[in-house]
């Protein structure tokens, strides 16, 4: 009978771990900022086969699907939401709405929140829309 070695734990690159931690911290800052502005957080880091949405929040009759971007500058963060990401976020939002049909009649939009050192989060409402490019 052949002896098999136990699986070795996968080590993640330090840069990837740091980026992940920065992203989680930025998402928490943005969620706190949204709560202070009167939003209700419905979901964080919602995943579907299509992708992930960082924050889903409700403000009165509006559902906001929010992509959080943390970069060295606010400009870098603003330019980092790619067309491919937008399509994944839209598809993921459709999956979330399918799971929450009671909220499907609400108005919705796609926002971005930008985070950079020494700046408060910047909320770009209606940063992009779901219409075909």
* Fold-level CATH name: Trna Endonuclease, Chain: A, domain 1
Named at the architecture level, the CATH assignment is: 3-Layer(aba) Sandwich
Kindly report the oligomeric state of this protein: single chain
Number of domains: 1
Q: Choose one word for the global shape.
A: globular
Over all CA atoms, what is the radius of gyration? 17 Å
Helix content: 25-40%
Largest sheet: 5 strands, mixed
Q: Strand order, main sheet: write it out.
A: 1-2-3-4-5
Compact description:
By secondary structure, this protein is an alpha+beta fold. It contains three helices and five strands; from the N terminus they run αβββααββ.
Notes on the protein architecture:
The N and C termini lie far apart (59 Å). It is globular, with a radius of gyration of 17 Å. The mean pLDDT is 88. With 133 residues, the chain is of the alpha+beta class. Helices cover 34% and strands 32% of the residues. It has one domain: Trna Endonuclease, Chain: A, domain 1, CATH 3.40.1350.10. It has helices at residues 14-36, 74-78, 83-99; strands at 40-48, 51-59, 62-70, 107-115, 122-128. Strands 1-2-3-4-5 form a 5-stranded mixed sheet. It has 3 helices and 5 strands, in the order H-E-E-E-H-H-E-E.
Ordered list of secondary-structure elements with their pairings:
Blueprint: H1 14-36, E1 40-48, E2 51-59, E3 62-70, H2 74-78, H3 83-99, E4 107-115, E5 122-128
Parallel strand pairs: 3-4
Antiparallel strand pairs: 1-2, 2-3, 4-5
């Amino acid at each position: 009978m052949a002896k098999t070695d136990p699986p070795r734990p996968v080590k993640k690159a330090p840069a990837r771990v740091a980026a992940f931690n920065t992203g989680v911290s930025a998402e928490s800052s943005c969620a706190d900022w949204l709560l202070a502005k009167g939003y209700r957080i419905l979901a964080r880091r919602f995943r579907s086969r299509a992708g992930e949405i960082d924050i889903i929040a409700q403000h009165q009759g509006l559902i906001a699907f929010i992509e959080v971007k943390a970069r060295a500058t606010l400009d870098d963060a603003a330019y980092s939401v790619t067309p491919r990401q937008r399509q994944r976020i839209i598809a993921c939002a459709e999956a979330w709405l399918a799971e929450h049909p009671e909220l499907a009649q609400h108005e919705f939009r796609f926002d971005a929140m930008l985070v950079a050192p020494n700046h408060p989060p910047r909320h770009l409402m209606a940063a992009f829309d779901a219409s075909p490019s």
